[in-house]
Amino acid sequence: MSFKKNNGWQRLDNAAKIFPSNSTKRDTKVFRFCCELTEPVDPVLLQPALEATLESFPLYRAVLKRGLFWYYFEQSDLPATVQPELAAPCQPLYIKGQKNLLFAVTYYRCRINLEIYHALTDGTGAMNMLQLLVSHYLALRHPEDFPHGRAAIPYDASMAQRMDDSFYKYYSGRRHPRQKEPNACQISGSRLAENRIRVTEGVLSVRQLLDLAHQYDCTLTIFLTAVFLQATSWEIPQKALKKPVVASVPVNLRQYFHSQSARNFFGVINVGYDFLHGSDQLAAIIASLKADFARELTREKLEQRMDSFGALERNPFIKLVPLSLKDPVLHLAGWASGQKNTVAISNVGKVKLPPALQPYVRLFSVFVSTEKVQVCLCSCGDALTASFTSPFASTEIEKNFFRILTGMGAAVQLDCSTPDSWLLPPSPTGPEKEVP
């Protein structure tokens, strides 16, 4: 369904509908994708590269509007202008009552940043856009190396495929029994002032991490989720561990259902561990997570979740409820969903660049606004970037995470604002409570 067919408007996909009602100054529902080049960015060339990129992503020129019953996208002619990075990351892009584009492109030294509002697209859609932007930019920056124009990125979807609402396409209409999930323990503590988030990034070797994961006969995602849960459990009071420590894990549904949509097409699973009754050793956590992932990551299970959310959207009564009444209900639903997990981990996966682009790119990274502690994983070549965002003043969980990995022999390069003492291995009985 295109803007042209709908006289300049476009409905939100099923996953996008909850974001406007749950966007706050504390959690803006904005995520940032970064590409760090091997040379400083030329903003004069980045602007035409952005304009060329947007020709392939017309939906991203839309603004978000309030209707009587639902939010919707409206086609706009607002200019998209490249800006230097001056503000704190993940600032609001959707502001009620204002007509704004839902993405922004900024630059800082060698980094090109794409920030995007989650109602517009998910991580896969944003990464496809950023790769195309980088490809256009490098063709302009180094025309001698790209005599035939930009290098082709591995995303050749047609315009119709990019605009596709895959949730609508794959909704089966079947009824499924409701699945109840227990509440998870929650992290508490002093928060940063002015609704800011702290960003901590570490760059690791994909090869080293895969070697460690293979020692436990598991995938990289399961291995790092287990490390994250263990690092988190060390900072939770014993009485709070009566509830499991649970990680929310977004799932790219394109891996299970054929889709090349540039819009949202993701699901979420919750995987956790009972530290009160189980061993706190990494091997035990991994064994439990392997069972959780195997149970949840099937087409049948993911389809059940899609159908459940799709049925709510299509409920005749809910359709007729005015948006002014839907907003508080959707906000409450978002809060209730947040009680089911403690932290979040998202593995965007491997960025596969054309060979012509590889000499100019150092790494990619991703991070998001959040009300919890969240880590996003993204790799390019042998460099895997683990980017933590947190609203809390304490950095103990992040420190524990990297110390566990360095204690197992993994090399970690932290950003310059992070103390080297973080890379000291943890004590055999758990974390050190004082930073050396």
From TrEMBL:
Highest taxon in the source lineage: Bacteria
Name of the protein: Alcohol acetyltransferase
